[in-house]
Amino acid sequence: MQDRCNQPNARNCLIASYTEAMGPIMRSTTAVVVVLLGLFSPRVSAETACVPLQYCDLGQTGTIQCSFEEDSFAAFWYNSTSEREEDLVAVLKGSVKSGRGIDSGEFDVHPNGSLVIQNVSLHHEKTFTVFTTSISGDSESEETLRVVVKVIVKPQVSHPVIEDCSPFGKMCISEVGQSRFHCTVRYARPAVPLHWILQTDDGDKNVTSSYALERNGPTTTTRVTTENPFDQKKLLHQLLCRTNASNQLLNHNESLLLVEDSKRVSKLSASPTDRPFEIGSSAELACPSDNASIVLWKRQTSQGRGYDQLAVILGEQKFVMSPDVFTVETNSLKIEEIDVHQEGLYYCIVSGSNKEAVHTYNVTVFANPTPPYPEVHGCNHQQYCVLDVSLTGNLSCSLTAIRPPVKLELAPYEDDSPLSFTTSTHVVTPSGETYDVHLRSTYAIRPTTGDSRNRLTVKCRAIGPNAHLFQLETTFDLHFKADDAPRTKPFAYIALVIPVTVVIVVIVVVLLIRKNSTKQEERNPTPKGEGIPLTEDVNLKEKQDTFVAYLKERYKQLFNNIHPVPHKRKVVFPVNEVYVQGGIRRLETYRTEGNVMWSDVESYHQIINFHPESNRRLIEGDPGYGKTTLALQFAYDWCTGNESSPLNGIEILIYLPLRLLVSHMTFVEAIEQFAIPQNGPISKNDILRILQTCKSAVIILDGYNEYAYRDSFNTDISHILQKKMFPCINVILTTRSLQLPKMCESFTKFQLTGFDEASRYQYIQKVIASDPRSANGVNDRFKRNPMLEDLFQVPLFFVLTVHSADVTRYNQEYLSSQSVTTFFKSLVTCFHNHKTKMDDSVDRQPTDSTSWMNHEKLDRVAYEGLRRAKQQLFWEREKLRRDLGDEFYDRYVHIGILVEETHYVTIIRNQKACNVEVQFFHKLFQEWYAAHFVANSARSRKFEQVCEHLDKYDLYYVYRFASGINPTAAGKVIKFLADFEPVRLCIQEQGDECVNTSHLLEQFKDDKLLPVLSIGKSRMLQRATIQLLEMATQREISIRNLYVIDLKPTFSDASNTLMLTSGVSLPVLQTLGWLGIREGGREMTDGVMDDILRYVELSSAMNGIAFFGCLLPQVVNMESHDILQQREVKVHWGRFHLLNLNTGRWKRIDGDNGHDQSDEDYRIRIEYLRGQLRFEVEPPKEMEQALVQ
Q: Is 867 in a helix, a strand, or coil?
C-alpha cells in the first residue's frame, strides 16, 4: 500500500487506504454503539471546526486552531487556496504524520488536526486550506475549509503610550502648559489606528488630530498628535487616546491622559493644614469631594522643584502609584506605616461639574525620643533623681533619637529659686533619620540670708517650635550644703583666717622636710632612675595589689557562671569545665611572595605567645563560635595561675566586653565602672598609673562587632588598636569574621573554625558525664542528618542541643531540620513547651500557653536595637517590662531568652547606682527576633528601608533567619544582597523553591558572583555554594569559573562526584567552563590525577582545569582520556605549564619554547614547589591569567 501511494494523486490514495483500514473496524461495532456514538459524540460542523481568520506572532510558534474528532479522521493541509499536490505540506492520518512540511520541520500537526507553524515568518501570511475526511459508522464524509492567517507583531507595551507624562500604567498625568500631546503604538504589525477624545461632563468629543505612520521593517509605528484641545478652564482635564481596531495586538484599546492646570491649582491653594504623625503610625488625609468626577493626589518633592503624583480617582476607578505605601479609601489617601520619606506638602485637587477645590496638608513625621523623656546626666531615671552638687558647676541633659529636633532648656522649677543658669551649649547631632540633642549649662546657687533650703528642683524641658509635638520634661533635685554659701557676717574673717593659718603651717613643715632631705641626699645620693620616693612606690604597689584583687573577683563572677542553655538557669558551670577547644587557625603572611596561608594551631595558649614585633592579636569567628568563652578561659587561666598558660606571671589582665562602653566613655572609665566596687579606693588616675608602670599586662577587648563607636577613629579603643595608647601592652581583640576593624592589617590573625566530630565527642565526655547516654544519643541522631552535622560546626548550636537533649529528643521537626531557621525555631519552641510542661506539673496560676507565640513587640525591640549605628544590646528592666507586658516579660525571663543583669553606674564623686538591665541570652537570639520584624515587612514598600539600617557584615544571620521565616522575604533578601557572598546561605533556607535567584545565577557567567570552595568557608557555606551551582546547571546557565582551595578533592566512582575533605561532595556541573584547584604543597598521585581528569571528562562544557601549588606527576597516563583530546581541554599547571594531551608530559607555554618539559626542568619545578608551600586563600592572579584565553 505504501508503494501504491507514492504517486501524484497521493491524497486520494491515502484516503482510500484510510477507509480500507478503518471500515471493518467501524462496521464491526454493534448497532447500539453506533446509536450511542450518534447521540453522544456529534461531529464538529464545517462552520465551527476552524475560525476563518486567525493571527500568528512573527518569529513565534503559531497554531492554526481547528477542532476535529481525534479518533476517526484524516487531515490534509495546503499552504494555498488550491489543493494541488505541490502545495500539500502536512498530513495527519490517525496518529501518523507525514508530508514535506513535517519532514523539513517547518510544520507540525496537533492530534486534533490543528496545523502548527514552528517559526512564523511573513510568507506564512496567506490562506491555508485543510481537507478532512472522517468515517462515522458506514458513512464517510469530506470537508474542505479555508483559514486566512495574518502575521502580527505585538508592541512591547500592550496599550497606547502617551508621551512626555508621568505614567500610571495605562494612565498618565501632564500639565496644560504643554501645547502638544502625542500618543503612539510602536513597532506593531499591522498598523494600529489611533485618535484623541476629550471627555467632558457633557460627553465625549472628538478633537482635531494629526496622524503619522513610520515603517520599521515588517512593523509600523503609529503616532497621533493633538494641540490645545481644551475649550474650558478647569483644574483637571481628561483626554483619551483610543483605537477601534480588534486585531488582538493590544490588551487595552485606550489610555487616559489627565491634564492639570497647575496655574489654577496654585491660585486656589490655601495655606496648608499641619498634620503631624508619629513614625510607624497609620496616616490618613481626607479630601472633601462631593460629586467630584476627578480627584488627584500629589506631593511636592523634597527639593521643592516638582511634584510626585500619588493617586487618581475617577469615579469607581482608582490609580495608585505606590500601592505598597499608599492606599485610597473613598477619596482619602492612607499611609499604613508612615516614615520620614513621606514628609512633605500634599495636595488633593478636586474637579467636577459643580465644584473645584484644592486641599493642602503639611505632613510631618515625628519620632519620640528613646527613652521618651530628657535624660539628666548622672541620674538613674528608674527612680526620682537627687544629685549632690556644689554651689556652682555644670548640668547636662539630652534627648536621643528624636525627630524633629527640639531645643532643650534647664531652668529652676520654683519662681523664687536662688538657682540661676548662665552659659549654655546646645548641640544637635544628626543620627540617621533622627537627632541627638545635648544641652550643657553652667549654674550658680546663691542662697539669700534666711533661706535655709539645701534642696532645689530643676526641670529640663523641650522648648521651641517643635516642642508641642512631645511635651517633654524631666524634673530632678539638686542637693547642696547651705552652709557653704557665701554670706556677709560680722565674723566672716574667721573663715579666712583659719585656712590661711593652716596653709602657713603646711608650708613651714614642707620646707623643714626638704632641708633635711637635701642634707641626707648629700650624704647618700639617690641612684639615677630612682627619683620616686619610696613611700609613693609602696602606695602604688598596694593599690596595684588591690586593683588586681578587684579584677580577679569580677572575672570570677563571670567565668564561674556559664549557662549553656537559657531555659535551665540553675545549670551553671565554671568556664574551665565547659571550654573545649575547637578548630583554631593562624594566618601566616609572607610579604616577599605576597602569598598567605592558614596553619592549624594546636593549643589556644599559642595565641598568647606574642612575637616582640607584634603585640596586637585578632581572634575572629562567626556568631556562636565561642569567642567570648575563649576570652573568659583566658581570664580563668590568669586568675588561677594556670602554669601551662603564658598568662601565668602576667601582672595585669584587663578583660573588657566592649558592648558595655556607652557614650564616649574612656577606656579607664570603663574599667572603673566594670571592675571597681562602690566606694573602692582605686581612682581612674590610679588605674592609668598602674597600667603605665606595671611590668607586664594583657588587654582583652571582647566583641568589637558590638562596640557602638567602632567607626570612630578618635576613641580610646581606636587609639589602643593603633598603638597610640599603651603601645607596649599586649592586646587581644575578638570580633565577628565579617566585622574586622579597619586598622587590623598589622595584627596577628587567628580564626575560630568551630567544632569537628572530635571536639563534639570531647565536649560530651567532659560536660555531660552525668548523662552520657542521652548526650551520645543526640550525637548518634544528628549523624543521620547531614544538615545538623553542618549546624553543629557552630559550637553554640551544638551546646544548646546536648544540654537540651531531654527536651528535643522527641521533636521530629527539630531532628529533621534542613535549615538554620527550622533548627532555631524548633529549639525555641522546645524551650517554651518545656516551660509550659513545668508550669502544669506544679500548682501555679494557669496562663495562656500560646501567648508567647505573638512576639511582635519583642521583634520590634530587637530590630530597633540592631538598626542603630550604635547597637542597643541592653534595656532598662522596668521600661522593657512595660513595653512587653508583665506576663510576656516574666515568661521570657523565666525561660532565659531574656537575661537580667545588674550593673553599677558611676554617677558622681565615685558614687555608683545599681541599675538592672536586660539583654538577650546571646546576640543570635536578638537577631532571631529582629529577623521576624524584617520578614514581616517583606510585603511592604519599606522592606529595603528596613534592611538598609542593618549592617549586613555583622547581622547576616538576621537576613538568613528572615529568608527561612518568609519565602517572600527570601526573594527580597536575595535581591537586596545579590553581591554579598553569605546570600547563598539565605537561598539554602528556602531551597530550590526560592525566588529571585535568576539574577544571582546570571552573575556566574562573568564572575560577578565568584564561586569559591575553600577551607576558610564553613561547611554550610560550601553546601550553599554547591546548591547554587546545581541550580545554575539545571537552568542551563553557564558558570565561568569554580575554585576549590585547600580541600584535597578526590573522585568517587560510586557517585561521580569530587569528595572534599570538609565532607561536602561536588557533583558534575554540565555548564561549568573552568575548574581551578589550589593546594598548598599537596602531592597528587597518578591515581588522584587520573580521577580528577575523569571528573573533567564528565563535565561536558568544561574547557579546562588549572592546578596551583600542587606537586603533579611528571607524566600523566592519557590512554583512558580520549575525550580530553577530542574536546581539546586545557590542563594547566601553574602559570607557564600546559599538559600535552598526546604525550602526557608538561610543556612550557611562555616564549617560543613549546617543547615537552625535560627531567631536569621537572626536578627544578618540584623543588621550587616544595620550598614554596604557602599560597593564597583567595584565587591568585596567575589563575585568572591562565583561565582567560
A: helix
Instruction: Output the DSSP codes for 744-773.
Output: -TTSEEEEEEE--HHHHHHHHHHH-TTSHH
User: Which among 937, 941, 839 is positioned nearest to 891, based on CA atoms?
Assistant: 839
Cα distances (Å, whole numbers) of residue 554 to 560, 653, 656, 672, 1012:
10, 12, 11, 11, 45
Contact between 904 and 914 under an 8 Å Cβ cutoff? The reply is: yes
Q: What is the pLDDT of residue 814?
A: 57
Residues ≥6 apart with Cβ < 8 Å to 894: 835
Pairing of strands 332-335, 326-329: antiparallel
The model's pLDDT over 548-566, given as tens digits with 9 standing for 90+, comes to 999 999 999 888 888 887 7
User: Per-residue pLDDT for 638 more than 90?
Assistant: yes
Q: What is the DSSP letter of 1114?
A: S
User: Alpha helix (H) ranges present in 657-710?
Assistant: 667-675, 684-693
Q: In degrees to the nearest 10, what's the CA dihedral of 119, 125, 127, 132?
A: 10
Q: How remote is the C-alpha of 529 from its chain's centroid?
A: 59
Helices (H), 28-126: 31-40, 46-49, 100-104
Partnered with residue 1065 across adjacent β-strands are 1059
Q: Is residue 30 pLDDT above 60, yes or no?
A: no
Hey, which residues does 473 pair with through a beta bridge?
A: 461
d(CA 677, CA 544): 15
Q: Using one digit for the tens of pLDDT, what is the confidence trace for 1111-1149?
A: 888 889 888 888 888 888 999 988 778 898 888 888 887
Q: Which residues contact 426 (CB under 8 A, 6 or more apart)?
A: 407, 408, 437, 438, 439
First-last CA distance in the chain: 60
Q: What is the pLDDT of residue 572?
A: 81
Q: Residue 806 and residue 543: Cα distance in Å, rounded?
A: 50
> Would you report the helix, strand and coil content of the chain in percent, each value rounded to 5?
30, 30, 40
Q: Between 381 and 933, whose confidence is greater? A: 933
Whether the ω angle into residue 404 lies within 30 degrees of 0, i.e. cis, is: yes
Whole-structure pTM over 0.85, yes or no? Answer: no
Contacts of 157 (CB under 8 A, 6+ apart): 185, 186
In three-state secondary structure terms, 61 is: coil
C-alpha closest to that of 821 among 1019, 629, 1020, 1009: 1020
Per-residue pLDDT at 70: 52
For residue 931, which of 982, 970, 897 has the smallest C-alpha distance?
Answer: 970
Nearest to 339 by CA among 277, 284, 422: 277
353: closest CA among 289, 309, 297, 310? 289
462 pLDDT higher than 90: yes
Q: How far apart are CA 1187 and CA 1176, in angstroms?
A: 17
Please state whether beta strands 107-109 and 127-136 pair in parallel, antiparallel, or not at all (unpaired). unpaired
- Supply φ then ψ for residue 78, to 5 degrees: -120, 145
Q: Is residue 59 left, alpha or beta, with left meaning phi > 0 and alpha meaning psi from -120 to 50? A: left
Residues 834 and 943: their CA atoms lie apart, in Å, by: 35
String of DSSP letters for 294-311: EEEEEEE-TTSS-EEEEE
CB 875 within 8 A of CB 899: no
Q: How many helices (H) does the chain have, and how many strands (E)?
A: 33, 56
Other beta carbons within 10 angstroms of residue 296's beta carbon come to 24
As a whole number of angstroms, the distance between CA 544 and CA 553 comes to 14
Strand order in the sheet with 875-876: 875-876, 911-920, 898-908
Tens digit of pLDDT for each residue in 802-859? Answer: 777 655 554 555 556 667 888 888 888 877 877 776 665 444 444 444 555 788 899 9
Q: Any idea which residue has 579603643 for its cell? A: 717
